[in-house]
What we know:
The complex is a heterodimer of chains A (about 350) and B (about 350). By secondary structure, chain A is mainly α. Helices cover about 75% and strands about 0% of the residues of chain A. Chain A is built from 14 helices and two strands, in the order ααααααββαααααααα. Chain A is globular, with a radius of gyration of 20 Å. The two termini of chain A are about 20 Å apart. In chain B, helix 3 runs antiparallel to helix 11, helix 3 (about 45-70) packs across helix 12 and helix 6 runs antiparallel to helix 11 (about 235-260).
Amino acid sequence: MIREWVGGERIPFARRWGIAIAVLGLMIALILLGQGHGFGALEYLQFILDGLRGGSIYALVALGFVLVYRVMGVINFAQGAFVMLGPMLTAFFYEQKWPPAPGLRLALAALLAVGIVGALGMIIERLTLYPARRASPLTRIIITVGVYLSLQGAALLLWGPYAKVLPSFTTLSLSDPTYRFAGVRVKAQSLWIAGTLIAALLALGLFFGRTTVGKAMRACAVNRLAARLMGIPVDTMSTLAFGMAAALGAIAGIVLGPVTRATYDMGLELGLKGFVAAIMGGLVSFPGAVLGGLLLGALENLWAGVTVAGFKDLFAFVILILVLLLHPRGFAGTEAEVERA
Amino acid sequence: MGRAGFPANAIGFAIGLPLILAIGGLEAFRPMGLSLPALTGGLLTLDTMIRVGLFTIVLVGLNLLMGYAGQVSLGQAAFYGMGAFFSAIMTVRARTLGIPPALAEAWWWPWLVMLTGAFLVGLTAYGIGRPILRLRGHYLAMATLGLGIVVYILLRENLGLPHLNLTGGFDGIQGIPRLRLGGLLLWPAWRYYFLVWLFAFGAIALGLRVVRSRVGRALRAIHGSEMAAESVGVEVSYYKAQVFGLSAAMAALAGSLYAHFQTTVIPATFGFGSSLELVVMSAVGGMASIWGAPFGALTVLLVQEVLRTQLHRVIPNAQGEFEAIAFGVILVLIMLFLPEGLTTGGLRWLRSRMGLRPR
Lengths: 341, 359
């Protein structure tokens, strides 16, 4: 039962194969492009591995999009702002003098940041989307865009345009150790990121499968009216879902923090790419979103390897348009769910 | 949205046209040393008014799309930019493209480019919109978002053809010629102002016409109930795609006019932020109102101007960050408390004051 809810309805194998063939074709095209550069198998593997790191982040962000969309029916364009606030707040707390042990300080800072962003998400939902709960989806989408603008402006106001740096989780310094496995290099932070993604998936699975609140939230997503009639406080569930999505976004930003520099405007790109990942997964399925994120990250990095650097960001959005034009259901979901979107 | 009982359109033209003419006349002749900045305490300049006119053209299209067809476009600035760069490339880079100088230097060439650009951009939008709009819901918003960013990156990266240097990369294109009408140069600024507002009123008239036409009726039916509209034979996706194409063409036209006004275009002007700005303008003026377009543009540009010039008096060291916050907060507040925007909301208030039946 949970499988159906989490994954959307099963899709026919023929269609699934179609997607697989399309992805394979794309990979072959990218590899052929790379032949001109004289890349070997190892380089491709390295590209894909590095890409999976970014992909895990997209996947985490995409989970937030799917969560809010399923429970509230809103595409939450403010998600990128929460992704940005996570590392910014963490770095801000980490820069304080207390507690003196840097490891403890980083852990506390990260926890505090996730908590604050989660709470902020809930407050924002109560202040903006809750009063507009009967408004048209169009209105609600524009509201989230407004929230995004305000949060980004607030970050710029608080911390200025300068990049904030988070230390590597492993060494607690700026240098991050690199491990070598059979010729491919993996950064330690990449392992933290992958671990976080797996932990987040497990936590979400447990939450929706085992806890009463999680089950109530699922009920809201399936049928709001019926859920209300069963005595589930649907508006509270919406607030909670929004807060959870915000916290997820913050976590994604924090684990990414040591790899990139955190700036007030980093949320736009990450939010949009997470959104593309969610669309690839059909916008209604958690595994679809994760798969979409990982695939997007890997393919994008391959693409960046074989073309000009400035074109890296192009890939995700070309994919977005292609998915919408050719296969708007993504990896999962049904016609009915796409129609409801 | 004027109907019997309240001739909003007639009043709009009756007030708007003379006002625009008066401002232009004032700036053209400067009687007794008076000028627009002097009269408004430096708040309004001819430059701002030209921008309002340009945005009006874009917003009429955007309002048709958002307010009447119920679709968000988060990439409208891309169409604006496509128009601007099409004009810029076809005039400045004519030699690179192998266009004979005799053609490229003719006075009517920029005009031809402008119309062709608008047509091509409209066609592109229609081609993208047709399949996507078959799906119900906000898939167009996502597609336009993607398209906007793709267009921005292509402009920034020289369309992937660095050896031709067509778009000029980050720095854009400089030295776009001013428009001429036969032997008459449409410059100084007041001449261009009249041209822009001629187009702006044309856009408003076209918008009003579309709203009252078969397409407009179909869109209103769709707005009421898509299923009901479909069941009486309205082909929903067809009309939506048509409006999307029209709005893109209008944005492209305004973009061309912008290019010839500014004489410089850079890709950064047409990024995602500008698309959001257009949505803010549309929401402020009132999405489901053609007359909301000039009001939305004027209000937002004035707010920007005030923030830029006055804010540091209240908060020293204040920079652009407040603009973003103010934009975001304004957008949220308008959506929460005045979702119809200033014009429609204001009209409703007027109607109720005049004892007319509020619709």
